[in-house]
Design a protein that fits this description.
Elements lengths: L19 E3 L19 E3 L11 H12 L5 E3 L17 H14 L5 E2 L2 E2 L2 H10 L10
Parallel strand pairs: 1-2, 2-3, 3-4
Antiparallel strand pairs: 4-5
Helix pairs in contact: 2-3
Organism: Brachypodius melanocephalos
InterPro entries: LRMDA, LRR_dom_sf
Protein name: LRMDA protein
């Protein structure tokens, strides 16, 4: 096992049968571009620089839906995009739940998001209102 700080994922295209990818603790942001990895089912992007600024997270989630169609487990803990009351006092469980609905609306095959299993009720709510759940605060 090697630990390297990643700024580019260009070399991943040669690993088309990759099933799990852990990219924690890097400098990856909303401009993250993965090659098509049709067998990837687990992706962790904990403690990177992913945020909900403007529409960039929507673009990232749309990209993930396209290039990793088998994705079932995604973790974004420790990113600004993932509202966490332990990291930011201004965030609460409602902010986190709205974030979950938004992500689940975009990535409909997820079975786990962060550390929690996706419930049937969450999936139904994400289908109905997920598109409107992006967590934004006025400046």
């Amino acid at each position: 096992v090697a630990f390297v700080v990643c700024r580019s994922l260009e070399g991943l295209k040669t690993f088309s049968y990759l099933e799990e990818l852990i990219l924690d603790n890097n400098l990856l942001g909303n401009d993250l571009l993965l090659p098509r990895l049709p067998h990837l089912h687990t992706l962790t992007l904990n403690k990177n620089q992913i945020s909900f600024q403007r529409n960039t997270c929507k673009v990232l989630l749309d990209h993930l839906a396209e290039v990793v169609p088998s994705l079932q487990y995604l973790s974004l803990l420790g990113n600004i995009a993932c509202p966490n009351e332990l990291v930011c006092r201004e965030k609460d469980e409602d902010d986190y739940q709205r974030y979950r609905y938004f992500v689940l609306h975009k990535l409909t095959n997820l079975k786990f998001l962060d550390t929690r299993k996706v419930t049937r009720r969450e999936r139904e709510e994400a289908l109905i209102r997920g598109a409107f759940m992006k967590v934004v605060k006025p400046k």
